[in-house]
Design goal:
Shape: globular
Radius of gyration: 20 Å
Helix content: over 70%
Order of helices and strands: HHHHHHHHHHHHEEH
Number of helices: 13
Structural class: mainly alpha
Mean pLDDT: 91
């Protein structure tokens, strides 16, 4: 029985990965993260009435996050009457905190459109995965946008939430996911959100500080396993070229790993002296993404999950 409890977080983790690979992501209207986004959107006006400054935004994040985590913990507690039920329920919830198969589902249509010579469709598909004007992008910039999405998505959708799973369980993973959702909705420097979204943006930066750098390391290791020769020291210099303190790490790592130039016009250029990317580079980036996921699981998430379990139980006994 002790062995079962010891492997509980590992079982939850692998079951959640299995669910991801078999079922992928549900439609937005059925996705818990989409529910959180809708809840944030509806509650936004009420907290802005409290204060449009940092106070209102800070209270907003704290209250909504508390509600989300309370629901998760209550559901987990209710399912704990049976260990098997608890594991299944926890795995289902955990699966919604990260995304693996969906990256391929979103990016492959972009590549396939380019390979058919259909730039109009490629631009449309790209507009669904990036926040930039895609109407005039050429093939190089479309491929760059897709690879940037893969790299950033590895942190936002994998290392970010799963970094907290060994230490705080499913609730920890969803805590990061909720804050990340807040950041994507109000964490902007525009007139409306500069002060109100300040806390969400700063908290997201803090929570992703280590995951972003671990993500860059995993991407680099995965690329080495796949025979791509690159020097990790180059990632450090590339990472500072983006406005985001965290986003430059996985994108810089992918640019160095593939030996390509990633560019967002008017914002940044990574790997400036390298060649421009093509569809095959996007496919290679997807392969690196998948291998990076397993490296992160095997080298960090699983060992730390077991270690934390042992430390907690030793302290109790």
């Amino acid at each position: 029985m002790y062995l079962i409890y010891l492997s509980e977080p590992v079982i939850i983790l692998f079951l959640s990965v299995l669910l991801d690979q078999v079922f992928g992501e549900p439609e937005n209207r059925h996705h818990p993260v989409a529910f959180i986004g809708t809840f944030i959107d509806r509650m936004d006006q009420y907290f802005r009435r409290l204060s449009t400054g940092r106070l209102g935004g800070t209270v907003f994040v704290i209250v909504v996050t508390f509600i989300v985590l309370s629901i998760i913990l209550i559901v987990q507690y209710a399912s704990s009457i049976f260990l098997a039920l608890y594991i299944i329920v926890s795995a289902i919830i955990l699966k919604f905190s990260f995304s693996l198969r969906s990256m391929k589902d979103h990016v492959l249509p972009v590549i396939e459109s380019i390979e058919r010579g259909d730039l109009v469709t490629a631009r449309l598909k790209t507009s669904m995965i990036v926040r930039r004007d895609t109407t005039a992008l050429d093939t190089d910039l479309i491929c760059s946008a897709a690879i940037e999405t893969i790299a950033e998505g590895f942190v936002d959708g994998v290392t970010g939430p799963l970094f907290y799973f060994p230490f705080f369980g499913v609730a920890g993973a969803f805590f990061q996911r909720t804050v990340n959702t807040f950041d994507s909705m109000i964490g902007y420097r525009d007139l409306r959100n500069a002060r109100f979204g300040w806390f969400a943006a700063r908290l997201d930066t803090v929570l992703n500080f280590i995951p972003a750098r671990l993500g860059a390391l995993c991407i680099w290791l995965a690329s080495r396993f796949r025979g791509n020769e690159s020097d990790f020291r180059g990632i450090v210099s590339e990472s500072s070229k983006t406005e985001s303190r965290n986003g430059g790490w996985p994108m810089g790592s992918m640019a160095i790993a593939l030996g390509i130039k990633l560019e967002k016009k008017g914002y940044y250029v990574l790997g400036e002296n390298s060649r421009t990317p093509g569809p095959q580079d996007v496919r290679e980036a997807l392969a690196i993404y998948m291998l990076s996921f397993w490296i992160f699981l095997l080298l960090f998430v699983i060992p730390f999950s077991i270690l934390v379990f042992l430390l907690v139980n030793l302290s109790i006994s």
